[in-house]
Write a structure and sequence with these properties.
2 domains, single chain, four-stranded antiparallel sheet, two-stranded antiparallel ribbon, Extracellular Endonuclease, Chain A, 6 helices, about 170 residues, alpha+beta
Amino acid sequence: SQDQSFLLSNIVPQTAALNRGAWEGVESAVRGWADQEGEVFVVTGPGYNPDQIQKTVGPGKIPVPAITWKAIYDPAGSGTGAYICLNTAHPVCKITSVSTLTQLVNIDPFPALPASLKEQVASMPPIRQSPYALSHRAGNEKLQASWKSAVVQKAIKALLHSLTTNK
């Protein structure tokens, strides 16, 4: 199943801002959730606006979705929820219920689960800030440069040493 997740049939066109920013934060949050819980079921997909002519990319005219979503079912926590992100140059992501996602995209990612479970939003991890977005935020060059200074590096080494040394 890991190999299948890297097939070209398993991709969706995303704006660079979404892919490198908010979407990376969503994926990071879900990986953290899976690490914590041990097992979660994840379904990801596109959503199209039926009231707009779809933009396309490439010679095959692949439609570009208006939104990208990720639905999660946590069997241990008996909960579900979904992240929905606008696929724009300035993406915004929200956490919502699977039932709201189903109404929006007309796809039920977990058809075997009871409706009552899909109407509630599990205690989902917040969308993490992506390292790419953080490193490209205005003013970060000055902060990054200050962390590379000899004084800061010496202080970090001293802190690490004190944390790892038994007293």
